[in-house]
Design goal:
It is built from 22 helices and 23 strands. It is an alpha+beta fold. It has three domains: about 190 residues, Histidine kinase-like ATPase, C-terminal domain (Heat Shock Protein 90, 2-Layer Sandwich); about 110 residues, Ribosomal Protein S5, domain 2; about 250 residues, MutL, C-terminal domain, regulatory subdomain (Ribosomal Protein S8, Chain: A, domain 1), CATH 3.30.1370. An eight-stranded mixed β-sheet has the order 5-4-3-6-2-1-7-8. The protein has a five-stranded mixed β-sheet with strand order 9-10-13-11-12, sandwiched between helices. The chain is elongated and about 95 Å long. About 15% of the residues have low confidence.
Length: about 650
């Protein structure tokens, strides 16, 4: 008796549906892609109960005649390709001919379509069985309705996620497809509530504005790169705009939304040291490539693509994003979120009607009163201070030598001294070495010209210019400088090192000593010269010049520990991790007061760093407050 049989078409469609149609968002994706392939300029997606009850997709594309409408729901029926060779030159989003028959087999399905906007055709099916067809009046385009998804496959229906999760997935997809085609107007509604709407103006930044809001749109940076194989373009967010996951990575290949872990990693490589761990940027990355050198026929969902010259593409992506970020001012700029404060402020004046009039008067006269105060101040001062002079360093020593009266209690400089004052001679010596090493430095200073004001809590350095106020985290700034210096030294073929006057003795248990012996030659390459005395004893004879004085033993131990515990990490990544670790240990900490010369050296070296606006961990080094923002705080301007 024959055991092998040929499955009937309905059963085959149910199997195909298991691969293509996994949830409500799969239906939306397939129907929207069909609408785009039909050259629609307007696509509406109407959901009822997050698509679990009904999904309707309307478009104004070419439409279909009755014969094509009937053929479209047949398995492997498509207008996108003709022969097997066409699979290597795919210009459309759909091509497999599996989506509509898969959807039809697991739902109540209805299609309305017209090619001329007058005479149309309607075709209805339930679970793949035809229940109705008719000629109708219908505008040009197509409307597909999918009701009661998975009604005949209980197991699949049971494993659908909650309505809120299903809706979230659909919104995420529509956002991405809208970003891929800013020339198409999209509208997504759920239970008559609009969730996404774009207007088809072919302006990518406008689509970002509609999806993410004005503040995000203002902080997006253009990227571009091109070679003989690929053209890369799009918008990426400044590091100040980030999210807690990678869901906001929109990767497009010839306008097809795809997923790629390798491309995600290439993107994150460009943001390395600019974002803290666990935060991710907003990305719209468009890759244009000859269809002949990619393969999109990998998975029925068509979400994965294989590339020829993939390594070259990944390097291009990292370079394009890094180049744009490097050439953009990434300083953190604080913007006021004052509406709540303003509401409270106005409330004080609007408790009673008589105060409402006073509130209006204050708003009108505020600038006049400010100018009057400034004029009175200038009259009291014998030699008025010009704006330029006011930006110069304030002589704090002179201020604190003034007598303190009993009536007005003031703080003296000693009130703010650290409990454990910094050993200034050590840091001054290191600064001298730093300046000596870099005295021929020709790099451009990337920071604006700022005038030092003072130090806050022994941790933050305060600066100003003609229109802004700056706060610098001294530890983060030192970390950035030291990180780039150490990393550069580690990656040099020959590291400058010097002999210790008194060698450092290190002892290791036998298990670790065996690993240390394996690494002696590698340690010598980075300037750490160690002699093996046997029995787990080693003597450190020489160390690199960038070691912090007095911390040689700690640095050597940290380096050895990293060497023997990271044997499988590539050299570049290993040196990078080591540089981050040592830079943090070498940098001054909070609650340490610095002199003015030291601070000038610090800011000059920070400005010449490759990435001066963040420490190696991605935390900001500088925060900027505009003069207008500060005046808003104090209600000098409204």
């Amino acid at each position: 008796m024959a055991k092998i049989i040929k499955l009937d078409q309905h059963t085959a469609n149910l199997i195909a549906a298991g691969e293509v149609i996994e949830s409500a968002v799969s239906v939306v994706k397939e129907l929207v892609e069909n609408a785009i392939d039909a050259d629609a300029t307007m696509i509406n997606i109407l959901l009822e109960d997050s698509g679990l009850t009904e999904i309707i997709v309307q478009d104004n594309g070419h439409g279909m005649d009755p014969s094509d409408a009937k053929m479209s729901i047949e398995p492997h029926a498509t207008s996108k390709i003709r022969t097997g060779e066409d699979l290597y030159r795919i210009f459309t989003l759909g091509f497999r001919g599996e989506a509509l028959p898969s959807i039809v087999s697991v739902s109540n399905f209805r299609i309305k379509t017209s090619t001329d906007g007058k005479r149309g055709f309607m075709y209805s099916l339930k679970g793949g069985e035809v229940i109705n067809e008719a000629t109708i009046a219908f505008p040009k385009g197509t409307e597909v309705s999918v009701k009661n998804l998975f009604f005949n496959t209980p197991a699949r229906l049971q494993h659908l996620q909650s309505p809120s999760v299903e809706l979230s997935n659909i919104v995420e997809y529509v956002n991405k497809i809208a970003l891929s085609r800013p020339d198409i107007a999209f509208k997504l509604t759920n239970n008559d509530r609009t969730l996404v709407q774009t207007f088809g103006t072919n302006n990518l930044k406008e689509v970002i504005f509609n999806i993410y809001g004005e503040e995000v749109a203002k902080k997006m940076i253009e990227i571009f790169d091109k070679n003989s194989y690929f053209e890369i373009s799009g918008l990426v967010s400044k590091p100040t705009v980030s999210r807690s996951n990678k869901n906001h990575f929109t990767i497009l290949v010839n306008n097809r939304v795809i997923r790629s872990a390798k491309i995600n990693n290439a993107i994150l490589s460009a943001y390395k040291e600019r974002l803290v761990t666990g935060r991710f940027p907003i990305i719209v990355l468009k890759i244009e490539v000859d269809p002949g050198i990619i393969d999109v026929n990998i998975h029925p969902g068509k979400l994965e693509v294989k590339f020829s010259n993939e390594i070259e593409l990944l390097q291009m992506i990292t370079h394009a994003i890094d180049y744009s970020l490097t050439n953009t001012d990434l300083m953190v700029e604080v913007e006021s979120k004052a509406p709540k404060f303003e509401d409270e402020f106005e409330y004080e004046y609007k408790i009673d009607d008589e105060f409402e009039e006073e509130s209006i008067k204050i708003d009108i006269d505020y600038e006049d009163e400010y100018e009057k105060d400034q004029a009175d101040l200038e009259e009291e001062v014998a030699e008025p201070i010009t704006k330029k002079e006011s930006l110069k360093q304030i002589d704090l020593d002179a201020m604190f030598t003034e007598p303190i009266t009993e009536e007005i209690r003031s703080f003296t400089k000693t009130d703010f001294q650290a409990k454990e004052p910094v050993k200034e001679e050590t840091y001054i010596q290191e600064e001298y070495e730093l300046r000596t090493e870099h005295h021929k430095d020709t790099r451009v200073n990337k920071l604006p010209v700022m005038y030092y004001v003072g130090q806050l809590h022994g941790t933050y350095l305060l600066f100003q210019d003609e229109s802004n106020f700056y706060i610098v985290d001294q530890h983060a700034a030192y970390e950035r400088i030291n990180y780039e210096k150490i990393k550069d030294s580690l990656n040099k073929e020959e590291t400058i090192h010097y002999e210790l006057l008194i060698p450092i003795k290190l002892n290791f248990p036998t298990s670790e000593a065996l690993l240390v012996r394996e690494k002696l030659s590698e340690l010598r390459q980075i300037g750490v010269v160690i002699e093996d005395f046997g029995s787990g004893t080693f003597m450190v004879r020489e160390v690199p010049i960038w070691f912090t004085k007095g911390m040689e033993k700690e640095f050597v131990e940290e380096i050895i520990f990293e060497f023997i515990n990271n044997r499988k990490v590539n050299k570049s990544q290993f040196f990078d991790n080591l540089a981050v670790l040592l830079a943090c240990k070498r940098s001054i900490k909070a609650n340490q007061y610095l002199d003015k010369i030291h601070i000038e050296y610090l800011m000059e070296d920070l400005g010449k760093c490759e990435k001066p606006y963040s420490c190696p961990h991605g935390r900001p080094t500088i925060v900027k407050f505009s003069e207008n923002e500060i005046q808003r705080w104090f209600k000098r301007i409204v």
